[in-house]
Design a protein that fits this description.
CATH topology: CBS-domain
Distance between the termini: 51 Å
CATH superfamily: CBS-domain
Largest sheet: 4 strands, mixed
Strand order of the largest sheet: 3-10-9-8
Helix content: 25-40%
CATH class: Alpha Beta
Number of strands: 10
CATH architecture: Roll
Number of helices: 8
Length: 200
Amino acid sequence: MNQVHHNSHALDVVRLGDVQYQVPEPGVLRHVDARSAAVEVMTDLHRVPAATIPPTMPLDKVRQAMVLRGVRMLLVVDEQRAVKGLVTTHDLLGERPVAVSQARGLKPAELTVADIMIPVESIEAFTLRDVLKASVGDVIHALRHIGRQHALVIERDEPGTAPAVRGIFSASQIARQMGIPPFVGDVAKTFAEIEAVIGA
């Protein structure tokens, strides 16, 4: 490549010879340890589209959506893209669907995601500002403290504006990036396995 200088520009322009373009490598996750930056294990919604569903979706369709998208958590949003809640595989496969259906005199198949989701006012979240200063170990301890395998990361463009969901933390993704084999179990067991690896 030969450089061509233009005095009117701050950047040097180059002429291309043989060149290839880069493409992202889907499914490739960077290996991390407890000292790695927290953003290394955050799903950045500026780069990866959020997996979302409407509040009216029946529970059997929610399970299918998770399988098809290869995720364990879905954001529940309305037509204006406002976050109404979230739902995880634990919420779907745990006792909540049965308890709600019995309390309302309905069959589990009649429930929608709005009936069992974690409402937005109960969602645990961290600010992007704090996340940028945190480590993977900090995230693990925070998730264990709140007793959830998922948490959201929010940011505000300007003071006084409504926060926007910028990212997602997932304990299962953190485990994969730390080289821990896939696991299925309750929250306490999940973090016991992760913390055994990092020596926490």
